[in-house]
Amino acid sequence: MNPNDPSPETDNGNTVTFRRPRARDGKRIWEIARDSRVLDVNSPYAYVLWSQDFSETSIVAEFDGDVVGFATGYRRPAAPDTLMVWQVAVDETQRGKQIAKRMVCELFRHCAQAGVVAINTTISPDNQASQRLFAGAARALGLQLTREPFFSAELFIDSHEPEDLYLLTPGSAQ
Ligand SMILES: CC(C)(COP(=O)(O)OP(=O)(O)OC[C@H]1O[C@@H](n2cnc3c(N)ncnc32)[C@H](O)[C@@H]1OP(=O)(O)O)[C@@H](O)C(=O)NCCC(=O)NCCS
């Protein structure tokens, strides 16, 4: 996906478009993360930096000219053919319209052009929405979904749930 060539998707007659984030999107991404009340909210600086330096492995969704969703990601340093999707959130008013799933799929397809073949993400056991999101993305992309323990709760200084690693890999999709 070229940032100058966003993929239009119709949504009840309106249009959702997807593009690479830019530094100026950092503020809005921070707001969406904060308003999710689920994500660990990084500093405003972190989202500006991420939108600048990890733009090729991140995505935003726009609806009626406003950024309404984002997914941040990076290529895993020890496995550059794997896209680690870090955070995904959609503005509450826009949920249930497949925007998150479309962001993950669009992002994967964009990264696939640069050699990415798999997606990893970490999800806490209580985040059913996220589990369903990545199960749906795996189906849509024809990837196999497996899960393994990743970060145990005692690694975190705050009262954080453990995080499982979800692996979406090429192979026979379940
Ligand atoms: C999780 C979140 C990104 C989903 O956004 P969304 O645009 O509403 O999701 P989609 O419409 O693309 O739904 C994708 C799939 O997830 C399922 N899903 C979405 N929200 C769900 C929920 N609250 N409970 C159960 N399943 C849910 C959908 O039914 C759909 O399943 P399908 O593929 O079988 O049809 C959004 O609820 C959110 O921002 N939550 C707060 C932040 C968060 O938890 N992020 C994930 C961790 S990084």
Automatic annotation (TrEMBL):
Pathway: Amine and polyamine biosynthesis; ectoine biosynthesis; L-ectoine from L-aspartate 4-semialdehyde: step 2/3
A single GO molecular function term of this UniProt record: diaminobutyrate acetyltransferase activity
Keyword Transferase set for record: yes
Matching Pfam families: Acetyltransf_1
Superkingdom of origin organism: Bacteria
Region (Disordered): 1-20
Enzyme class: transferase
Family of the protein in this entry: Belongs to the acetyltransferase family. EctA subfamily.
PANTHER family hit by this protein: L-2,4-DIAMINOBUTYRIC ACID ACETYLTRANSFERASE, N-ACETYLTRANSFERASE
Name of the protein described by the UniProt record: L-2,4-diaminobutyric acid acetyltransferase
